[in-house]
Specification:
Largest sheet: 5 strands, parallel
Shape: globular
Low-confidence stretches: 1-5, 128-132
Mean pLDDT: 86
Order of helices and strands: EHEHEHEHEHEEEEHEHHEE
Helix content: 40-55%
Number of helices: 8
CATH class of the largest domain: Alpha Beta
CATH topology of the largest domain: Rossmann fold
Number of strands: 12
Length: 232
């Protein structure tokens, strides 16, 4: 895997935790830079040197949600957020802003590594596709190599996770894809009980996508089953 993709930015004000994670992640083959406040986190995240960001929510100067908001104005770099155990509101808001995944503190470093590798595998797999490989459906065009999307000729500003979800749904247009399948195929992880992440990402996608000629969203909810891309 490209070394630049494996360079990770850790943004957390808990220096003892950062020291432990830097040592652990370095031992797992990652290159990790750590900063300890939100302002420095924004600056480091936007310099383009990192392929993935681990971002804590509770931090001085700027909290993690504001850091993520500023990052998303200029970058779609994958972000895994660290939230307090049981704090569902922070998780939901983070997903609404554009987080790709989240973990609750405390966590086992081994699980963190598994999550990071799943995100990086998805990116590596996507960038190995030839740039001219496109998927077109209705007004949507997906360039799988460049990982870009447009609707009726207008570019869509999608996060990495949103692009993955959209690709899975469009590839199976007209078929119902369960949340469990979407989680495995697009997020690279097993769907956990009460996990609303897929729903939040789909809601974001609907806001960014245009409408079909009849006014419907191209992504249809199949109650109790999952989602499908409408095939006309």
């Amino acid at each position: 895997m490209d070394q630049s993709v494996q360079k990770i930015l850790l943004v957390d004000d808990d220096q003892a935790l950062c020291d432990m994670l830097v040592e652990y992640l370095n031992g797992e083959g990652f290159s990790v830079d750590a900063v300890h406040d939100g302002e420095r986190g924004v600056q480091a995240a936007l310099n383009g040197d990192h392929g993935l960001i681990i971002l804590d929510i509770m931090m001085p100067k700027l909290n993690g949600l504001e850091v993520l908001r500023q990052i998303r104005h200029r970058s779609n770099v994958p972000v895994l957020m660290l939230t307090a155990k049981g704090d569902e509101v922070d998780r939901i808001v983070g997903l609404e802003i554009g987080a790709d995944d989240y973990m609750s503190k405390p966590f086992h470093p081994r699980e963190l590594v598994a999550r990071l590798r799943a995100i990086l595998r998805r990116l590596s797999s996507a960038t190995s596709v030839q740039q001219e490989n496109e998927m077109q459906h209705e007004r949507l065009v997906l360039n799988l190599g460049a990982r870009t999307a447009s609707w009726a000729g207008e570019p869509l500003n999608l996060t990495s996770t949103e692009f993955n979800l959209l690709s899975v749904l469009v590839a199976q247009a007209g078929q119902v894809v369960s949340k469990g399948e979407l989680s495995q195929m697009a997020l690279g992880k097993k769907l956990e009980r009460y996990d609303r992440g897929i729903d939040m990402h789909i809601s974001h996608l609907r806001q960014k996508l245009g409408r079909l000629e009849d006014g419907r969203s191209p992504i249809e909810t199949i109650r109790g089953s999952g989602y499908q891309w409408i095939k006309s």
